[in-house]
Amino acid sequence: MDGMEHRKGRVANKADATVLASQGIEFLISAEGEVPLSSLNQKTVCLYFSGKWCRPCRTFTPQLVKHYNNLRLSGRKMEIVFVSFDRDENGFEEHFEGMPWLAVPYNARKRLWEIFRVNSIPSLIPLGSNDEFVEDAVGLIDDYGVDAFPFTRKRREELKAMDDAMRDGGKLDDLLVQGGRDYVIGGDARKVLVSELLGKTIGLYFGAHWCPPCRAFTSRLVEAYNELKITKSRSFEVIFISTDRNEEEFDLNISTMPWLAIPYNDKSRSDLSRIFKIKGIPTLVIIGPDGKLVSTNGKAMISSYGAEAFPFTTSRVIEVETVIRIKGDGLPKQVKDTKHEHLLKLDMAKAYICDHCRKQGRFWVFSCEKCDFDLHPGCIEKSW
């Protein structure tokens, strides 16, 4: 494994440089040379446990550098102290070379591994009371960036409350507008103002081109989207939130989509994934005309009922299921039709192609149990 397994729990630690001095550490290292421990006084101090050999560390470190520099430029009193998990001193020096913060001497690192019980890297541990600070700030920074500062439990709860308010607040522009961007884009590079989407049912589509289930679902969603454009005029819109690996994949993806998207380099992509607690893709989140969350299970509705599920509420799904059941109750359980030599039995299918008219069918089908043959109920000779 690139990372290391984590055993939860660590000792209560003291503020400022006291914990470092108590372990016999007399000074810190910067790019210019030795730095006294007193330089940490009156700052929020975090110990950063990392190793150059660790792939998650190599991914997280550049993010941390960016956030650290932004915090320092904004006047926040913060310092990071690197504690190496590198396998030798040359590795430590190469890894530390790209870091703008301080480090403990290489020969002092193991004492800090033990006192903080660090068995997982990367790990960013704020110094201070365990009752005040989060145990490890890596996840918090991954989710919130510089907004995570000062990495306290109180700040984490504030940020979660802000996410809840965004998700449940009923304001589409709060969800989709980011900084100076007040629009979403189309695959043809056109820009559509978020204000033009107010009052519509919105599907937030989380997906990626590299994901085969996403490509399969995209085709179903395109079919339903195009049908709703005809039957429901302009009352439904989809906005793609990409988890593609790079901008080239994103561009390829949206070039095949008839709807809109959040720009690839926009922070809103990760914010929306966090706010709606997206755990896997494809996922379709439905936002109602009032801007409030309707469902996080739009994928299942589209997959099962297509455009018939619009506006994708629980009550509408119940209506559709009732209509389907009533229609099935009015059909025979089996038929013998001249178009096929075997007995055909009534069955349900999300989608199929009728072997007689060659058109797609959905829900009810007469199928042969002996061979791959399907007929629309409407294509059966109605002799019953």
From TrEMBL:
CDD domains: TryX_like_TryX_NRX. Residues 9-168, 170-323 form the Thioredoxin domain. The keyword Repeat applies. Keywords: NAD, Oxidoreductase, Repeat. GO terms for molecular function: thioredoxin-disulfide reductase (NADPH) activity. Its EC number is 1.8.1.8. InterPro entries: C1-like_sf (IPR046349), DC1 (IPR004146), Nucleoredoxin-like (IPR052259), Thioredoxin-like_fold (IPR012336), Thioredoxin-like_sf (IPR036249), Thioredoxin_domain (IPR013766), TryX_NRX_thioredoxin_dom (IPR045870). It comes from the Eukaryota. It catalyses: [protein]-dithiol + NADP(+) = [protein]-disulfide + NADPH + H(+); [protein]-dithiol + NAD(+) = [protein]-disulfide + NADH + H(+). Belongs to the nucleoredoxin family. PANTHER family: NUCLEOREDOXIN 3-RELATED, THIOREDOXIN. This is protein-disulfide reductase.
